[in-house]
Amino acid sequence: MTDTPAIDTSTASLSFSNASGNAVSNGRLLRTSGGQYVMEVDNGGGNYQYYNAAVSATSDGTSNALSIVVTSASSINSFSAVNSVTGTSYITLDPANVDVRYTDVDGNSSNDVLKLDADGNYYMDVPNGNLDKTATFVRSDSSGNLMLKTLQGVGDVQIYFQAALSSVTDASTNFTTLRVAETGSEIRLKHPDDPLATLDRAIGQIDSQRTRLGAVANRLLSAQTLQGNATAAIAASRSRIEDADYATEVSSLSRQQILQQASSALLAQANQLPQQVLKLLNA
């Protein structure tokens, strides 16, 4: 939206600067019969100097400011007083101070839809089921009325609606609520303005989905690897436990066998003692 309404110079805040950027305190804004803006400077004693000037306007929603800057020192003989300023301006919105609320033709409303793309252009991102709907302002070639150009997801069907606008600004917080609504019957156009851009968006969406699926697959593979490692660790632990129990049993068996052999040897020695005593007596 670049149409700028007339700004009353009697209520706006005016600042004057010379060609070097220094402030001028005794300047006055004029305009020639050809529409060129001129700065009048009183050098004292009724000696007025006139300079070609450029005018820029800024607004915070509640007050207007005009900056008049000298562009050359040419003398102007034909001019008239300026009561208002019209023309084209560029509007920069601060999303922190603006809430754009969007209402579609079915009456569905969405809040805070204002977004900024990579090129620095504003657009409206409207949730619409599984596909996001984007909308931008355009001018009708036939009537010049403001319209909404909408696009569902990355499809190639553009739908146009007439736009209804209203805004409310809280002067205490300087916060503006802008309401945008689709009105009238839709106008469908099959062919996009830029087919390559549409194709790029579709490819980008596919790449994004593949990236998300790849990330999920990697997480599942990692979980599978961890589960395999845990199974191997459990098997190794079980093997160590079983080996430890077998060694204990073998050690116990060996001890019992040694004790049995020692007992047998002692019993054999005890059985030989009476025979040795008898041999001594007989001798």
Short recap of the structure:
With 283 residues, the chain is an alpha+beta fold. Helices cover 31% and strands 40% of the residues.
Explain what you see:
Strand 14 and strand 15 form a beta hairpin. This protein has one helix spanning 195-282; strands spanning 3-8, 13-17, 27-32, 37-42, 48-59, 64-70, 79-81, 84-88, 98-103, 109-110, 114-116, 122-128, 131-139, 146-152, 158-170, 175-189. It is an alpha+beta fold. An 8-stranded mixed sheet has the order 10-9-16-15-14-13-12-11, with no helix packed on it. Strands 2-6-5-4-3-7 form a 6-stranded mixed sheet, with no helix packed on it. It is elongated and about 170 Å long. Among the domains are: 3-88, no CATH class; 95-193, no CATH class. Helix content is 31%, strand content 40%. The mean pLDDT is 79. It is built from 1 helix and 16 strands.
Question: What is the beta-strand fraction?
Answer: 35-45%
For the secondary structure, the number of strands is 16
Which H/E pattern describes the elements? EEEEEEEEEEEEEEEEH
- What is the number of helical segments per DSSP (H or I, 4+ residues)? 1
Query: What is the oligomeric state here?
Result: single chain
Helix content range = 25-40%
Mean pLDDT: 79
Broad shape: elongated
Largest sheet: 8 strands, mixed
